[in-house]
Amino acid sequence: MYKLIPTHLLIILTITTFAFLSVAFSDESSTDLFTEDEAKQLRYSDKDWGKETVPKHKPDTLDRPSIIFEEPDVVDTDKGPTIIAVDPANVFIIIKQNDSPLDPGTLKVWGEKFFVHIDVTDRVLKYFKTNKEGAVLHAKGIHIPKGHYKVGVSIKDINGNKMEKKYRLKVE
Taking Cα atoms as reference points, which of 102, 100, 74, 71 lies closest to residue 88? Predict the structure, then answer.
């Protein structure tokens, strides 16, 4: 009987340790795009959302990087490009370099509402990886509080040519 207790404790301790280590060292840990307080500042009311627009995106050219949203879906609406996401969201953005290599240090990701601008670049940098064609930003399970927002992504190449895209973001 006394030998069974230490064996059971050892098994429980081993399982608990592995569970803790798998969470502590996981690259797939959840990231909040906006904190709840930031979401309150950035969230549009239904009334304001109906009036809020973003510019249509200009066609990609060879003189600047290209930003392509693969996931979540982007829908072209009469109010501008709108991302439709479900919380938690998987995000997959391809950034293609064109004539010149990207300058990774110029990546910016933000939320905005009227005069409020909240930079969240530091929260997504761990998901940003450069490659020979440019870069990808691939994150799984990003937490975004439900609501309507306006977000932006920008990056420059080494010659200073900038691509910036703004989106309406609807999180369900």
Answer: 71
Distance CA 48, CA 88 (A): 24
> For 106-128, what is each residue's pLDDT tens digit?
999 999 999 999 999 999 999 99
Q: Is residue 59 reached through a cis peptide bond, with omega within 30 degrees of 0 on the bond before it?
A: no
Pairing of strands 134-142, 147-157: unpaired
Q: Which is the CATH superfamily of the domain at 29-171?
A: Immunoglobulins (2.60.40.10)
| pLDDT tens track for 53-90 | 999 998 888 889 999 999 999 999 999 999 999 999 99
Backbone angles phi, psi at 37, to 5 degrees: -65, -45
| Distance, CA of 122 to chain centre | 10
Whether the model pTM is above 0.90? no
* Bridge partners (DSSP) listed for residue 84: 73, 170
Contacts for 94 with CB less than 8 Å, ≥ 6 apart: 66, 67, 68, 70, 134, 135, 136
Per-domain residue ranges of the chain: 29-171
For 58, what's the count of Cα atoms within 13 Å in the CB-facing half-sphere? 10
Structure tokens at 127: 């998901």
The CA distance from 153 to 68, in Å, is 10
